Protein backbone atom coordinates (compact mmCIF):
# COMPACT_ATOMS: atom_id res chain seq x y z
CA UNK A 1 0.00 0.00 0.00
CA UNK A 2 1.29 3.46 -0.80
CA UNK A 3 2.25 5.83 1.98
CA UNK A 4 1.19 9.49 2.16
CA UNK A 5 1.78 11.27 -1.15
CA UNK A 6 4.49 13.87 -1.55
CA UNK A 7 3.38 17.39 -2.49
CA UNK A 8 5.40 17.86 -5.68
CA UNK A 9 4.53 20.75 -8.03
CA UNK A 10 2.60 18.37 -10.27
CA UNK A 11 0.64 17.02 -7.31
CA UNK A 12 -0.76 20.50 -6.78
CA UNK A 13 -1.59 21.02 -10.45
CA UNK A 14 -4.31 18.73 -11.71
CA UNK A 15 -7.29 19.50 -13.89
CA UNK A 16 -8.46 23.10 -13.92
CA UNK A 17 -5.16 24.41 -12.55
CA UNK A 18 -3.05 24.94 -15.66
CA UNK A 19 -1.61 22.87 -18.50
CA UNK A 20 -0.64 19.26 -17.88
CA UNK A 21 2.22 17.26 -19.32
CA UNK A 22 1.64 13.53 -18.86
CA UNK A 23 3.65 10.39 -19.50
CA UNK A 24 1.29 8.02 -21.30
CA UNK A 25 0.15 4.68 -19.92
CA UNK A 26 2.14 1.99 -21.73
CA UNK A 27 1.65 -1.73 -21.14
CA UNK A 28 4.87 -3.45 -19.99
CA UNK A 29 6.66 -0.09 -19.76
CA UNK A 30 5.17 2.36 -17.25
CA UNK A 31 5.39 0.09 -14.22
CA UNK A 32 6.23 1.32 -10.73
CA UNK A 33 10.00 1.18 -11.36
CA UNK A 34 9.68 3.29 -14.49
CA UNK A 35 7.53 5.84 -12.71
CA UNK A 36 9.93 6.16 -9.77
CA UNK A 37 12.74 6.83 -12.22
CA UNK A 38 10.72 9.34 -14.24
CA UNK A 39 9.71 11.25 -11.12
CA UNK A 40 13.37 11.82 -10.27
CA UNK A 41 13.73 13.59 -13.61
CA UNK A 42 10.64 15.78 -13.34
CA UNK A 43 8.51 17.06 -10.50
CA UNK A 44 6.11 18.51 -13.08
CA UNK A 45 4.82 15.50 -15.04
CA UNK A 46 1.64 13.55 -14.38
CA UNK A 47 2.51 9.85 -14.50
CA UNK A 48 0.20 7.01 -15.53
CA UNK A 49 0.23 3.34 -14.69
CA UNK A 50 0.05 0.61 -17.25
CA UNK A 51 -3.51 -0.38 -18.03
CA UNK A 52 -4.79 -2.74 -15.32
CA UNK A 53 -7.87 -4.82 -16.15
CA UNK A 54 -10.75 -4.35 -13.72
CA UNK A 55 -11.17 -8.11 -13.21
CA UNK A 56 -7.50 -8.36 -12.20
CA UNK A 57 -7.99 -5.64 -9.59
CA UNK A 58 -11.07 -7.38 -8.22
CA UNK A 59 -9.57 -10.86 -8.03
CA UNK A 60 -5.78 -10.54 -8.25
CA UNK A 61 -2.86 -9.55 -6.04
CA UNK A 62 -3.73 -5.92 -5.45
CA UNK A 63 -0.45 -4.90 -3.86
CA UNK A 64 1.47 -6.28 -6.84
CA UNK A 65 -0.90 -4.68 -9.35
CA UNK A 66 -1.53 -1.34 -7.65
CA UNK A 67 1.19 -0.71 -5.09
CA UNK A 68 3.50 2.22 -5.67
CA UNK A 69 6.01 4.46 -3.92
CA UNK A 70 4.73 7.77 -2.55
CA UNK A 71 7.57 9.54 -4.37
CA UNK A 72 5.84 8.77 -7.69
CA UNK A 73 2.89 11.05 -7.00
CA UNK A 74 0.87 12.35 -8.70
CA UNK A 75 0.03 9.02 -10.35
CA UNK A 76 -3.08 8.19 -12.35
CA UNK A 77 -4.42 4.64 -12.55
CA UNK A 78 -5.62 3.47 -15.94
CA UNK A 79 -8.25 0.71 -15.87
CA UNK A 80 -9.52 -1.50 -18.68
CA UNK A 81 -12.98 -3.00 -18.77
CA UNK A 82 -16.54 -2.57 -20.00
CA UNK A 83 -18.72 -3.58 -17.04
CA UNK A 84 -19.88 -0.50 -15.11
CA UNK A 85 -20.20 -2.33 -11.80
CA UNK A 86 -16.77 -3.93 -11.99
CA UNK A 87 -15.16 -0.68 -13.13
CA UNK A 88 -16.77 1.21 -10.27
CA UNK A 89 -15.44 -1.24 -7.71
CA UNK A 90 -11.99 -1.29 -9.33
CA UNK A 91 -11.95 2.51 -9.31
CA UNK A 92 -12.90 2.54 -5.63
CA UNK A 93 -10.07 0.15 -4.82
CA UNK A 94 -7.63 2.24 -6.86
CA UNK A 95 -8.63 5.43 -5.12
CA UNK A 96 -8.11 3.64 -1.83
CA UNK A 97 -4.51 3.01 -2.82
CA UNK A 98 -4.02 6.75 -3.21
CA UNK A 99 -4.15 7.30 -6.96
CA UNK A 100 -4.93 10.93 -7.86
CA UNK A 101 -6.97 10.06 -10.95
CA UNK A 102 -8.76 7.05 -12.40
CA UNK A 103 -8.68 6.76 -16.20
CA UNK A 104 -10.73 4.48 -18.44
CA UNK A 105 -8.92 2.96 -21.44
CA UNK A 106 -10.92 3.41 -24.65
CA UNK A 107 -7.93 3.32 -26.98
CA UNK A 108 -5.85 0.14 -26.66
CA UNK A 109 -6.08 -1.96 -29.87
CA UNK A 110 -4.43 -5.17 -28.63
CA UNK A 111 -5.89 -8.62 -29.25
CA UNK A 112 -6.27 -8.99 -25.50
CA UNK A 113 -8.68 -6.09 -25.17
CA UNK A 114 -10.53 -7.00 -28.35
CA UNK A 115 -11.26 -10.45 -26.98
CA UNK A 116 -12.54 -8.82 -23.80
CA UNK A 117 -14.61 -6.24 -25.73
CA UNK A 118 -12.99 -3.20 -24.14
CA UNK A 119 -10.20 -0.76 -24.98
CA UNK A 120 -10.55 0.73 -28.46
CA UNK A 121 -13.56 -1.51 -29.15
CA UNK A 122 -15.56 0.81 -26.91
CA UNK A 123 -15.28 3.62 -29.46
CA UNK A 124 -18.23 1.86 -31.12
CA UNK A 125 -20.29 1.98 -27.89
CA UNK A 126 -20.23 5.56 -26.57
CA UNK A 127 -23.37 5.09 -24.46
CA UNK A 128 -21.76 2.14 -22.66
CA UNK A 129 -18.63 4.22 -22.12
CA UNK A 130 -20.83 6.90 -20.57
CA UNK A 131 -22.42 4.39 -18.19
CA UNK A 132 -19.00 3.04 -17.21
CA UNK A 133 -17.62 6.49 -16.54
CA UNK A 134 -20.70 7.57 -14.60
CA UNK A 135 -20.42 4.50 -12.37
CA UNK A 136 -16.72 5.18 -11.78
CA UNK A 137 -17.41 8.83 -11.07
CA UNK A 138 -20.06 7.91 -8.54
CA UNK A 139 -17.64 5.56 -6.78
CA UNK A 140 -14.70 7.90 -6.16
CA UNK A 141 -13.87 11.47 -5.17
CA UNK A 142 -10.78 11.81 -7.37
CA UNK A 143 -10.98 12.89 -11.03
CA UNK A 144 -12.27 10.28 -13.49
CA UNK A 145 -10.96 10.67 -17.04
CA UNK A 146 -11.03 8.84 -20.35
CA UNK A 147 -8.34 8.15 -22.96
CA UNK A 148 -9.58 7.32 -26.44
CA UNK A 149 -8.77 7.27 -30.15
CA UNK A 150 -10.44 9.46 -32.78
CA UNK A 151 -12.23 6.36 -34.12
CA UNK A 152 -11.80 2.72 -35.09
CA UNK A 153 -11.78 0.95 -38.44
CA UNK A 154 -14.26 2.51 -40.88
CA UNK A 155 -15.73 5.00 -38.41
CA UNK A 156 -15.86 8.63 -39.46
CA UNK A 157 -13.78 10.44 -36.79
CA UNK A 158 -16.09 13.47 -36.77
CA UNK A 159 -19.24 11.86 -35.35
CA UNK A 160 -17.34 9.01 -33.63
CA UNK A 161 -15.18 11.24 -31.43
CA UNK A 162 -18.00 13.69 -30.77
CA UNK A 163 -20.31 10.89 -29.64
CA UNK A 164 -17.68 9.46 -27.30
CA UNK A 165 -16.85 12.89 -25.93
CA UNK A 166 -20.49 13.88 -25.37
CA UNK A 167 -21.22 10.71 -23.41
CA UNK A 168 -18.06 11.27 -21.39
CA UNK A 169 -18.98 14.86 -20.59
CA UNK A 170 -22.47 13.79 -19.56
CA UNK A 171 -20.88 11.25 -17.21
CA UNK A 172 -18.96 14.01 -15.44
CA UNK A 173 -15.38 13.29 -16.49
CA UNK A 174 -12.63 15.76 -15.66
CA UNK A 175 -10.62 15.24 -18.84
CA UNK A 176 -10.66 13.62 -22.27
CA UNK A 177 -7.23 12.49 -23.49
CA UNK A 178 -7.22 11.74 -27.23
CA UNK A 179 -4.67 9.69 -29.16
CA UNK A 180 -4.97 11.49 -32.49
CA UNK A 181 -5.08 8.37 -34.68
CA UNK A 182 -7.69 5.84 -35.57
CA UNK A 183 -7.21 2.30 -34.29
CA UNK A 184 -7.54 -0.33 -37.00
CA UNK A 185 -8.71 -3.43 -35.16
CA UNK A 186 -8.86 -5.39 -38.41
CA UNK A 187 -5.65 -5.59 -40.39
CA UNK A 188 -3.07 -3.91 -38.17
CA UNK A 189 -1.12 -5.21 -35.19
CA UNK A 190 -0.99 -3.20 -31.93
CA UNK A 191 2.53 -2.09 -32.87
CA UNK A 192 1.43 -0.99 -36.34
CA UNK A 193 -1.48 0.90 -34.77
CA UNK A 194 1.04 3.16 -33.03
CA UNK A 195 2.54 4.34 -36.32
CA UNK A 196 0.59 3.53 -39.48
CA UNK A 197 -2.78 5.27 -39.03
CA UNK A 198 -2.14 8.93 -39.87
CA UNK A 199 -2.10 11.52 -37.12
CA UNK A 200 -4.94 14.04 -37.16
CA UNK A 201 -4.20 16.70 -34.56
CA UNK A 202 -6.71 19.04 -36.18
CA UNK A 203 -9.50 16.64 -35.25
CA UNK A 204 -8.49 16.95 -31.59
CA UNK A 205 -8.25 20.72 -31.89
CA UNK A 206 -11.78 20.82 -33.29
CA UNK A 207 -12.99 18.80 -30.31
CA UNK A 208 -11.47 21.37 -27.97
CA UNK A 209 -13.11 24.20 -29.91
CA UNK A 210 -16.45 22.41 -29.64
CA UNK A 211 -16.01 21.77 -25.89
CA UNK A 212 -14.22 24.89 -24.65
CA UNK A 213 -14.92 24.23 -20.96
CA UNK A 214 -13.74 20.60 -21.03
CA UNK A 215 -10.10 19.64 -20.52
CA UNK A 216 -8.92 18.05 -23.77
CA UNK A 217 -5.44 16.56 -23.95
CA UNK A 218 -3.43 15.53 -27.02
CA UNK A 219 -1.49 12.28 -27.42
CA UNK A 220 0.21 10.57 -30.35
CA UNK A 221 3.41 11.12 -32.32
CA UNK A 222 4.83 13.87 -30.11
CA UNK A 223 8.59 13.51 -30.48
CA UNK A 224 9.96 16.00 -27.95
CA UNK A 225 8.69 18.02 -25.01
CA UNK A 226 9.16 21.18 -27.06
CA UNK A 227 7.06 19.68 -29.86
CA UNK A 228 4.37 18.68 -27.39
CA UNK A 229 4.34 22.05 -25.65
CA UNK A 230 3.92 23.85 -28.99
CA UNK A 231 0.32 22.58 -29.11
CA UNK A 232 -0.66 24.06 -25.76
CA UNK A 233 -3.14 26.82 -26.32
CA UNK A 234 -5.07 24.68 -28.79
CA UNK A 235 -5.44 21.90 -26.19
CA UNK A 236 -5.18 21.87 -22.41
CA UNK A 237 -2.57 19.17 -21.99
CA UNK A 238 -0.10 17.01 -23.85
CA UNK A 239 0.87 13.38 -23.32
CA UNK A 240 4.03 11.64 -24.54
CA UNK A 241 4.77 7.92 -24.54
CA UNK A 242 7.53 6.26 -26.52
CA UNK A 243 9.42 9.50 -27.17
CA UNK A 244 9.94 10.26 -23.51
CA UNK A 245 10.58 6.61 -22.64
CA UNK A 246 13.39 6.43 -25.20
CA UNK A 247 14.91 9.74 -24.06
CA UNK A 248 13.83 10.23 -20.43
CA UNK A 249 16.23 13.14 -19.89
CA UNK A 250 13.68 15.12 -21.89
CA UNK A 251 11.53 15.18 -18.76
CA UNK A 252 13.81 17.93 -17.45
CA UNK A 253 12.28 20.17 -20.13
CA UNK A 254 8.73 19.85 -18.82
CA UNK A 255 9.09 22.68 -16.30
CA UNK A 256 10.52 25.22 -18.79
CA UNK A 257 8.34 24.40 -21.80
CA UNK A 258 5.04 23.59 -20.16
CA UNK A 259 5.06 25.54 -16.91
CA UNK A 260 7.49 28.40 -17.53
CA UNK A 261 9.90 27.38 -14.82
CA UNK A 262 13.65 27.87 -15.13
CA UNK A 263 15.59 25.00 -16.68
CA UNK A 264 17.81 23.16 -14.21
CA UNK A 265 20.50 20.72 -15.27
CA UNK A 266 19.84 17.12 -14.29
CA UNK A 267 21.85 16.16 -11.22
CA UNK A 268 22.86 12.79 -12.63
CA UNK A 269 24.84 11.65 -9.57
CA UNK A 270 21.85 12.37 -7.33
CA UNK A 271 19.39 10.67 -9.69
CA UNK A 272 21.50 7.55 -10.04
CA UNK A 273 22.31 7.47 -6.34
CA UNK A 274 18.57 7.40 -5.68
CA UNK A 275 18.16 4.62 -8.23
CA UNK A 276 20.91 2.58 -6.57
CA UNK A 277 19.10 2.91 -3.23
CA UNK A 278 15.73 2.11 -4.81
CA UNK A 279 17.15 -0.89 -6.67
CA UNK A 280 18.74 -2.13 -3.46
CA UNK A 281 15.35 -2.18 -1.76
CA UNK A 282 13.83 -3.96 -4.74
CA UNK A 283 16.56 -6.62 -4.83
CA UNK A 284 16.29 -7.09 -1.07
CA UNK A 285 12.59 -7.94 -1.56
CA UNK A 286 13.52 -10.65 -4.06
CA UNK A 287 13.38 -8.62 -7.27
CA UNK A 288 15.92 -8.47 -10.09
CA UNK A 289 18.07 -5.46 -10.90
CA UNK A 290 17.14 -5.69 -14.57
CA UNK A 291 13.48 -5.08 -13.73
CA UNK A 292 14.51 -1.57 -12.72
CA UNK A 293 17.39 -0.73 -15.04
CA UNK A 294 15.57 -1.67 -18.26
CA UNK A 295 13.73 1.65 -17.96
CA UNK A 296 16.98 3.60 -17.62
CA UNK A 297 18.76 2.59 -20.82
CA UNK A 298 17.89 5.75 -22.75
CA UNK A 299 18.97 8.21 -20.04
CA UNK A 300 22.15 9.37 -21.76
CA UNK A 301 20.91 9.36 -25.35
CA UNK A 302 23.19 11.52 -27.47
CA UNK A 303 26.03 11.75 -24.94
CA UNK A 304 29.48 10.17 -25.33
CA UNK A 305 29.48 6.81 -23.58
CA UNK A 306 25.73 6.23 -23.94
CA UNK A 307 26.29 3.05 -25.91
CA UNK A 308 28.60 1.66 -23.25
CA UNK A 309 26.11 2.66 -20.52
CA UNK A 310 23.42 0.64 -22.26
CA UNK A 311 25.77 -2.29 -22.85
CA UNK A 312 26.90 -2.56 -19.23
CA UNK A 313 23.33 -2.52 -17.94
CA UNK A 314 21.85 -4.71 -20.69
CA UNK A 315 24.47 -7.43 -20.23
CA UNK A 316 24.91 -7.27 -16.47
CA UNK A 317 21.59 -6.36 -14.90
CA UNK A 318 19.61 -9.47 -16.01
CA UNK A 319 22.02 -11.75 -14.15
CA UNK A 320 20.63 -13.31 -10.99
CA UNK A 321 23.56 -12.00 -8.92
CA UNK A 322 23.51 -8.44 -10.32
CA UNK A 323 23.88 -5.80 -7.65
CA UNK A 324 22.68 -2.16 -7.69
CA UNK A 325 26.25 -0.87 -7.79
CA UNK A 326 26.29 -1.92 -11.45
CA UNK A 327 24.40 1.31 -12.14
CA UNK A 328 27.39 3.32 -10.95
CA UNK A 329 29.80 1.16 -12.94
CA UNK A 330 27.79 1.91 -16.07
CA UNK A 331 27.61 5.61 -15.16
CA UNK A 332 31.41 5.79 -15.05
CA UNK A 333 31.42 5.10 -18.80
CA UNK A 334 29.47 8.27 -19.60
CA UNK A 335 31.03 11.61 -20.49
CA UNK A 336 28.76 14.29 -19.10
CA UNK A 337 28.48 17.86 -20.41
CA UNK A 338 31.07 20.37 -19.20
CA UNK A 339 30.61 21.30 -15.58
CA UNK A 340 28.88 18.09 -14.54
CA UNK A 341 30.58 15.24 -12.74
CA UNK A 342 30.00 11.52 -13.02
CA UNK A 343 31.10 10.98 -9.43
CA UNK A 344 28.26 9.68 -7.31
Automatic annotation (TrEMBL):
It is an enzyme of class 1 (oxidoreductase). Belongs to the Dus family. DusA subfamily. GO terms for molecular function: flavin adenine dinucleotide binding; FMN binding; tRNA binding; tRNA-dihydrouridine20 synthase activity. Its EC number is 1.3.1.91. Catalyzes the synthesis of 5,6-dihydrouridine (D), a modified base found in the D-loop of most tRNAs, via the reduction of the C5-C6 double bond in target uridines. Specifically modifies U20 and U20a in tRNAs. It comes from the Bacteria. Its cofactor is FMN. Keywords: Flavoprotein, FMN, NADP, Nucleotide-binding, Oxidoreductase, RNA-binding, tRNA processing, tRNA-binding. This is tRNA-dihydrouridine(20/20a) synthase. InterPro entries: Aldolase_TIM, DUS-like_FMN-bd, DUS_fam, DusA, tRNA_hU_synthase_CS. Residues 23-326 form the DUS-like FMN-binding domain. Pfam families: Dus. It comes from Aureimonas pseudogalii. The active site is at residue 108. HAMAP family: DusA_subfam (MF_02041). FMN binds at residues 78, 147, 179, 219-221, 241-242. It catalyses: 5,6-dihydrouridine(20a) in tRNA + NAD(+) = uridine(20a) in tRNA + NADH + H(+); 5,6-dihydrouridine(20) in tRNA + NADP(+) = uridine(20) in tRNA + NADPH + H(+); 5,6-dihydrouridine(20a) in tRNA + NADP(+) = uridine(20a) in tRNA + NADPH + H(+); 5,6-dihydrouridine(20) in tRNA + NAD(+) = uridine(20) in tRNA + NADH + H(+). The record marks 105, 191, 194, 307, 310 as: Interacts with tRNA. CDD domains: DUS_like_FMN.
Amino acid sequence: MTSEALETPAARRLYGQGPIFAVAPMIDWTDRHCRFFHRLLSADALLYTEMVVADAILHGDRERLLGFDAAEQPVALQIGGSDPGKLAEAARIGAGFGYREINLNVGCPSDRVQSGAFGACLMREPELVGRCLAAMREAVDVPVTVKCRIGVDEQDPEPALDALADCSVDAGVSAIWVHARKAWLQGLSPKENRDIPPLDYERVFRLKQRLPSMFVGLNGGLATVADAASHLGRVDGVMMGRGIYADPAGLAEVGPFVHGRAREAIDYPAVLGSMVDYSGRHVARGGRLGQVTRHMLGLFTGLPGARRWRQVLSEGAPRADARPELILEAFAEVELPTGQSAAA
